[in-house]
Write a structure and sequence with these properties.
Elements lengths: L1 H9 L4 H8 L6 H30 L8 H31 L1 H16 L10 H29 L5 H26 L5 H10 L1 H14 L5 H24 L8 H5 L1
Helix pairs in contact: 1-9, 2-10, 3-4, 3-10, 4-6, 4-7, 5-6, 5-10, 6-7, 7-9, 7-10, 8-9, 9-10
Length: about 260
């Protein structure tokens, strides 16, 4: 697991060079726009809700003594909770809506890595979008199921250090999952993809760790997060598929026969 996490992180090395070599930057315009707009909308929503959520948390303190201190703590906890939930929503929105744009990018990288001029691809933009929505709604629900209990436990002093790390790793896993699926959709159906990612969770986490870390870089992070993470995940996913003899490829020559 640990070894694969580092492989997922290391895959980001050379992503700029590969994108420049294959001329991929032109494909990232719409996904970058989706990323920026989604970040702005969710950021504004989080800003507006954080104070109200903090006030809601403060109501669980019934005593007069320490109420002001607890209110300040509640405001911080409320803001952190809204940020965590906002990151979850943002991540799945951009991964789902960018599917029709990221899948072709992943295909071009795969063709470059394997030396194949034609990949097995029988899906339309609409079907890629639907699969992206389906995968990310499923992942969103699972992520919330794991994250919400941890957020509740994070109100306990000391425990919140552990829960914060776990929440970050969970978010990283599902971010990596979404990035890997841009490649997997050409080779597996829905259920096979979830099984493949689960069996290679370390790669997904490693990819997602950098993905999540980049979101904390103002402006530049949300612009570069998709181009870099999709490029890195494709190189690793193709490697895994090749090692496990799971590649589903064809060429025009073989198809004509």
């Amino acid at each position: 697991m640990i070894k694969n996490i580092f492989k997922g992180i290391k895959a980001y090395t050379g992503t700029f060079k590969l994108m420049r070599q294959l001329g991929l930057w032109k494909y990232f315009g719409v996904p970058i726009l989706i990323s920026v707009v989604s970040a702005l909308l969710i950021g504004l929503l989080a800003w507006g809700l954080s104070g109200s959520f903090g006030g809601l948390i403060s109501k669980i303190w019934f005593w007069e003594w320490g109420s002001e201190t607890f209110r300040k703590i509640s405001d911080v906890l409320g803001a952190l909770t809204i940020i965590a939930l906002g990151l979850i929503a943002y991540k799945h929105i951009i991964l789902a809506l960018s599917a029709p744009f990221m899948s072709p990018v992943s295909e071009k990288i795969e063709a470059h890595l394997l030396g194949e001029t034609h990949q097995h691809r029988n899906t339309s933009n609409a079907s890629q979008l639907w699969r992206g929505v389906r995968i990310n709604v499923r992942n969103l629900l699972l992520e919330l199921m794991f994250t919400i209990p941890l957020l509740i436990l994070s109100f306990i002093p000391g425990v919140n250090i552990i829960t914060s790390v776990l929440i970050f790793l969970i978010q990283a896993y599902y971010a990596g999952f979404g990035n890997m699926d841009y490649t997997l959709e050409r080779h597996f159906d829905y259920s096979e993809s979830t099984k493949f990612v689960r069996n290679n969770s370390g790669i997904a986490i490693g990819n997602g760790i950098v993905f999540m870390a980049m979101l904390f870089i103002p402006v530049i992070g949300i612009i570069l997060v998709l181009p870099l993470s999709v490029t890195a995940s494709t190189t690793e996913t193709v490697r895994l598929l090749k090692e496990n003899n799971k590649l589903n490829l064809w060429t025009k020559t073989s198809d004509a026969k």
